[in-house]
Amino acid sequence: MAARLSRLGADAAATTDTPATTAGTLAPPPASSSPPPPPPPPPVASALPPAPATLTEIKQLQPTARPNNPVAPAPATKTPGHRFKPLPDKLATRSLVLAVMGLMLFVFPLVSLLAAIGGLVSLRRIRRSDGALIGESTARWAILLGAIGVVVGGAAIGIFLAVGR
């Protein structure tokens, strides 16, 4: 206990002329000769109006009721979620080029199959872009011509294999 009091500076206080009141506690410090601190400044008047005191004053503060026939809101139009000019989807254009090449090279239906798959992927991307991508008709043409190229190419390969025997 004495070690604790010495760390708190109690030894120095006990050696001065201030006696300890009880074991382990110190007497209050002597009164200082400095004047007490000044009182806080008075509160500043607020800019808010005084609170209503009566029920009639409270009723006067309530907002007026809305009319029964509000103005009809304007019909909602679907606007794209972007602020720039929509761009054509490059995959749709590439798929259309592959589809045309697949029709010209009908011996290779794999090219037409890639065109049809690319057209389907492009069409899905365009629909999910919320108007940021355009080229839906290009993608549809790529799907159609790619499917025709697969059918014609498959038939041509079948005929070549049948004739070659």
What does this structure look like?
The chain is mainly alpha-helical and 165 residues long. It has a domain at 87-163. The protein has six helices and two strands, in the order αααβααβα. The protein has a two-stranded parallel sheet with strand order 1-2. It starts with a helix and ends with a helix. The mean pLDDT is 80.
Summarize the structure.
This protein is mostly helical and 165 residues long. The protein has a domain at 87-163.
Question: What is the averaged pLDDT score?
Answer: 80
The counted number of beta strands is 2
Q: How much beta, percentage-wise?
A: under 5%
End-to-end separation = 113 Å
Overall helicity: 40-55%
* Oligomeric state of shown chains: single chain
Give me the side-by-side strand order of the main sheet: 1-2
- The assigned structural class equals mainly alpha
Q: Topology, please?
A:
Layout: H1 2-7, H2 10-15, H3 55-61, E1 87-88, H4 90-104, H5 109-128, E2 133-134, H6 136-163
Parallel strand pairs: 1-2
Search tags:
mainly alpha, elongated, 50% helix, 2% strand
